[in-house]
Design brief:
The protein is of the alpha/beta class and 585 residues long. The protein contains 20 helices and ten strands. The protein folds into two domains: 330 residues, ABC transporter transmembrane region fold; 226 residues, P-loop containing nucleotide triphosphate hydrolases (Rossmann fold). The strands form two sheets. Strands 6-7-8-3-9-10 form a six-stranded mixed beta sheet, sandwiched between helices. A four-stranded antiparallel beta sheet has the order 2-1-4-5, with helices on one face.
Amino acid sequence: MGSIKKLLSLFTPRERRNLAVLMVAVVGMAFLEVAGIGAIGPFMTVAANPAAIEGSPRLLWVYETFGFTSSRDFLIALGLVVFALVVTSNAFTTFTMYWVYRFASMRNHTLALRLFRQYLYQPYPYFLDHNTSALSTSILSEVNQLITSVLRPGMEALARGMVALAIVAFLFVSDPVVASAVVVVLGGAYAAAYLIIRKVLTRIGTERKDANRARFKAAGEAFGAVKDVKILGKEPAFEEAFANASRLYSWRQAQRQILGTVPKHVIEMLAFGLIVLVVVVLIGADESFASVIPAITVYAFAGYRLMPALQVVFRGAAHLRTALPVIDSLHHDLNTGVREAKTSQRDVRRLAKLDEPRLPFTRQINVKSMSFVYANSQARVLDSINMTITKDTAIGLVGATGCGKTTLVDVILGLLTPTAGSISVDGVKVRPKNLRNWQLNFGYVPQQIYLSDDTVAHNIAFGIPADLVNMQAVQRAARIAHLHEFVVNEMPSGYDTLVGERGVRLSGGQRQRVGIARALYHDPSVLVLDEATSALDSVTEQAVMDAIHELLGKKTLIIIAHRITTVREADVIYVMDSGRLIASG
């Protein structure tokens, strides 16, 4: 029951209400199934022995009330009623199952979107602790697995389970002994089969989930570092990693299907034996074979409806068992950092409606006694940092790798929250309520520029819908980055030229210029360059820095570098070591 509660908690209140309405329809479907089965008995009774009309008070009442004058006409009418009930039952079942499948399939969209949104709006530290491949697996694969292997079969199992209960209830009314035999033999067989394999199903589910994540991880790493893979000749290693994960995933999928289906064939034999036994008992208790034909027909038709329903219920229970790890994982992720994600989402949407959402920055940024410690760590990455950044000046941050330069900038950018101390802008402290306003002042250029497989224009106007891209802003930013002339004169389609995945059709210097243009697209007050030229050769680095130097006095620049020479034009240079500022000038 705990897993079912977790599964239901993955849906919104509105979705749960829609599910309840569907369940009402399922109950109606079950009643129609029973009505169709129940109507077969009178029809077969009259067909086998027309004189039975007079021996049955109910049949006689119907016969006289509706003015029938011959048993032949009455039999035809009964046949039409049975046919109409069967048609109505099947039509309503088709309609109900259509809505069941539609509801389940649309939850694939809504649940994946909610999970994507939950991840996307998490604070930056969340992504430092989680593998992005695992997040992608949850959104793109595990949600689909949950819907196709749990929700859809589960809803179908619930629907068929209601039908099975209704049929068994009908059999109890008709013949308690036969109904008891059905419950004991068929119900007991399915229950025993489930109890035997449930632990195996749980293990299969855990291993399937882990193997699926390993598949995504192997593929993501291989293609994400394809140049290194090619140079080092590591294709076989990644091929083997993917093959092992894929093989295990596929085998566990097959085992789940097998264990959900195999009991069917064994139990069908038991069901056939039960039907034979019922026929023998009925014939043995009555000298007239014709008199037992209606009962045999009803039981056979009930079995015809009951067996598939029980198998669907069993398969749904088996799939639910194998999906327990996925349900637990998705439930955990959707309930982790909910407040932070909702706050972030609200702030982003609020700022999108404002004409001037930026936190005013006209004088200076003050970092006062600021320290930072990562979660689950005791070491101070930043220790009592004090610094002042005056508007439209350039500061350089230099120091050895691991000294805390990037962490300091991440705190200033608002990606990390200081453990102690504060950051103020024109005397206003940066707090959670104005953090998004503050971040809109920044343009950021990392060492490794991410470029999507899109046009130059769309990579500069990153994240902007195609119909809202401001080409004037794109060209202005490209000119400042010394990129415009190259795009117009050298690229075959100008700003509409595709750059390839991760910008493979551009040189390193060109990619950095696209990154600088992207950072300048929104005309930020502060431009942060996080070792943006460290991977370039000296000539290309100088060309990129020349473009940056033209911004001196026009933008506030924060430049992170290993070498003093890279920041020699800065107004103030800070030297860092072991998380502390040890010199400035």
